[in-house]
Amino acid sequence: MTTAPLLSPAPGAAPLPRMVVAQTAMELRTLLRNGEQLLLTLVIPTLLLVLFSLVPLLDQGPGRRVDFLAPGIIALAVMSTAFTGQAIATGFERRYGVLKRLGATPLPRWGLLAAKTATVAAVEIIQIAILSAVAVALGWRPSGSPLPVVVLVLAGTAAFSALGLLMAGILRAGATLAAANLVYVVLLALGGVLFPLSRFPDGIRSALELLPISALSGGLRAVLQHGAALPWQHLAVLLVWTAIAFTAAALTFRWE
């Protein structure tokens, strides 16, 4: 006598790591299909790198312009993906009820934040590879060890991702769109991306050095242009921003 197979369902949530991986894959597919996001995260940084490397529009100090610009543009790409793009996308996901539906799933709030951060990291690998290739074609010859670069990019990604999710979680979609683009432009102008912070007076420069974009661009420039070891001061600024913003985002993020 044969026993019929047991076909009853086994209800229950999937393991948490599997849920985070699935959410990350969905976020990555959505981002890569969005032309506006690709314009912000890849086309604009590449155009800025080429334009300001070839045309002496701003004084970047002694040395070749591309040596100064390449680390700053990489920092800008990290900010455009982790902060600006993610804040806008998440804000509209909340507006259209996507986050409300995710809130009804077993995926915890911090799991969603982790999935979005992992998605950003995957896109940044593509960005950095393309920008580095363009910079090398323009004559860039980076120095320093790759390990400090990886540490700084990861810290910058975490800081900007947390700030973007914090903004998207507390503002309406329209306000997030305006605020994220405004912050992008302000930090581009004041974060040491296109010209050195030494152009500012000492008091203002000291305050600007505490910005996350200044810490990331300055840290990357110290390693890639000057061959320094891991710049702990810049890393500390990024870690402080990460801790504050991620905690605030986890506590205040609204699903609807």
Radius of gyration: 20 Å
What's the count of strands? 0
> How many discrete structural domains?
1
Low-confidence stretches: none
**Shape assignment:** elongated
How many distinct helices?
10
Largest sheet: none
Structural class, please? mainly alpha
Overall pLDDT confidence? 83
Strand fraction band?
under 5%
Order of helices and strands: HHHHHHHHHH
CA(first)-CA(last) distance? 56 Å
Provide the helix percentage: over 70%
Keywords:
256 residues, mainly alpha, 10 helices
Description:
The protein has 256 residues and is mostly helical. It has one domain. The chain contains ten helices and no strands. The chain has helices spanning 16-32, 35-54, 65-95, 98-103, 109-137, 146-170, 173-190, 202-208, 212-224, 232-252. Helix 2 packs parallel to helix 5 and helix 3 (65-95) runs parallel beside helix 6 (146-170). The longest helix has 31 residues, at 65-95. The protein is elongated. It starts with 15 loop residues before the first helix and ends with a helix.
Please give a quick description of this structure:
The chain is an all-alpha fold. It is 73% helix and 0% strand.
